[in-house]
């Protein structure tokens, strides 16, 4: 038996704002009219609005802004993304990366996605936690078994970041940039982060989970004190909130394109060509704590090039850099 709520939402998506009769939905899904009515009531409680007119039926007039697992699933069924073999959409999970790792260990077909409305133990890089309140943001992980050398893990993170920046610029006109190696920056503050985790056997990647956290609708007061000066959201920059489910659906489709290009090798010339435009650190004075100099792009491996004052180049393979005043 299919999930009735998802199937009902699919009918409304297909109707594109037009009225559809409750009895037609009921007949199509093999449900009683009362069952359809009850599902609509429970969807109303979750932020959907349906106009009802006698003899015409129902029309979807509003959707919840926060991520809604069934709406996301309905969108993905209506406009599928076959590159991913499956998608798990959840209300709450510890961490979408950890859940993806658990599913990989259970032999789930790859590539697949895990998306959640909230995370109770969201993880960031270097052992940090990722602030994951419900109702505002997007938490997503993509899992693969790519059989590629582990040395390429850096470039897949950078390529994903670059493709997301391009998507956010093209869709919303936002000047988002990548701060090597995994931050997406907007107006000088962090708007998203990527956590790439892999199991590696003898230099070959056995499996890989790429987790993405995007601050979508967080308001300034939603950030804890330690993040308030350094984090932002798409909604803060745009001045209005977005539908997290619809954004998630578009991002998943964009990610599939980006990964397809990456694994076919097509990305390489594009990456070299586009990186300077999206490089947040380009030309900036930076410090790693031990090396100080000017950020001078990246090497083909994805390592950061830092030009010291004496003109020599240091390559940073991992870690983080801080910006220094010029
Ligand atoms: C960072 O900037 O430190 C990386 C943050 C990555 C956060 C995302 S949210 C979805 C996925 N699940 C997690 O537990 N972490 C990543």
Outline of the structure:
The protein is of the alpha+beta class.
> Average pLDDT, to the nearest integer?
95
Low-confidence stretches: none
Secondary structure: number of strands: 14
N→C terminal distance? 63 Å
Tally of alpha and pi helices? 10
Helix content estimate: 25-40%
Give the overall form.
elongated
The order of strands across the largest sheet is: 3-4-5-9-8-7-6
Using only CA atoms, what is the Rg?
Answer: 22 Å
Strand portion: 25-35%
Structural class: alpha+beta
> Which ligands appear in the coordinates?
biotin
Please trace the helix and strand order, writing H or E for each element.
HHHEEHEHEEHEEEEHHHHEEEEE
Largest sheet: 7 strands, mixed
List keywords for this structure.
326 residues, alpha+beta, 7-stranded mixed sheet, 5-stranded antiparallel sheet, 10 helices, 26% strand, binds biotin
Description:
This protein has helices at 4-15, 22-29, 33-45, 69-78, 96-105, 153-172, 225-228, 234-238, 244-264, 267-278; strands at 49-53, 57-62, 86-93, 112-119, 138-144, 176-179, 183-186, 189-201, 204-214, 285-287, 292-298, 304-307, 313-316, 322-323. Strand 8 (189-201) and strand 9 (204-214) form a beta hairpin. The chain has ten helices and 14 strands. The chain is an alpha+beta fold. Strands 3-4-5-9-8-7-6 form a seven-stranded mixed β-sheet, with helices on both faces. It has a five-stranded antiparallel β-sheet with strand order 13-12-11-10-14, with no helix packed on it. A two-stranded antiparallel ribbon has the order 1-2. The protein is elongated and about 80 Å long. The protein binds biotin. The site of biotin has 21 residues, from helix 5, strand 5, strand 8 and strand 9.
């Amino acid at each position: 038996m299919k999930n009735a709520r998802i199937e009902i939402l699919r009918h409304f998506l297909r109707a594109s704002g037009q009225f559809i009769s409750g009895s037609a939905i009921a007949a199509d899904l093999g449900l009683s009219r009362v069952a359809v009515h009850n599902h609509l009531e429970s969807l109303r409680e979750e932020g959907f609005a349906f106009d009802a007119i006698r003899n015409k039926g129902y029309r979807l007039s509003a959707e919840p802004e926060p991520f809604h697992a069934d709406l996301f699933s309905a969108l993905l069924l209506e406009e599928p993304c076959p590159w991913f073999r499956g998608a798990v959409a959840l209300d709450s999970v510890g961490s979408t990366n950890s859940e993806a790792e658990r599913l990989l260990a259970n032999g789930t077909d790859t590539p697949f996605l895990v998306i959640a409305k909230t995370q109770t133990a969201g993880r960031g890089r270097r052992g940090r936690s990722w602030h994951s309140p419900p109702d505002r943001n997007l938490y997503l992980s993509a899992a693969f078994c790519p059989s590629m050398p582990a040395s390429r893990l850096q470039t897949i993170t950078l390529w994903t970041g670059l493709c997301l920046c391009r998507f956010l610029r093209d869709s919303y006109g936002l000047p988002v940039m990548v701060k090597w190696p995994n931050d997406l920056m907007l107006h000088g503050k962090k708007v998203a982060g990527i956590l790439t985790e892999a199991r590696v056997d003898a230099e070959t990647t056995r499996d890989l989970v790429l987790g993405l956290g995007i601050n979508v609708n967080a308001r300034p007061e939603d950030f804890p004190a330690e993040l308030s000066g350094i984090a932002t959201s798409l909604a803060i920059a745009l001045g209005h909130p977005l539908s997290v489910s619809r954004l998630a659906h578009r991002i998943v489709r964009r990610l599939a394109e980006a990964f397809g290009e990456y694994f076919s090798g097509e990305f390489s010339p594009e990456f070299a060509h586009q990186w300077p435009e999206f490089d947040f650190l380009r030309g900036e004075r930076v410090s790693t704590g031990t090396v100080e100099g000017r950020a001078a792009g990246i090497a083909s491996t994805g390592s950061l090039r830092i030009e010291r004052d004496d003109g020599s180049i240091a390559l940073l393979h991992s870690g983080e850099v801080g910006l220094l005043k010029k």
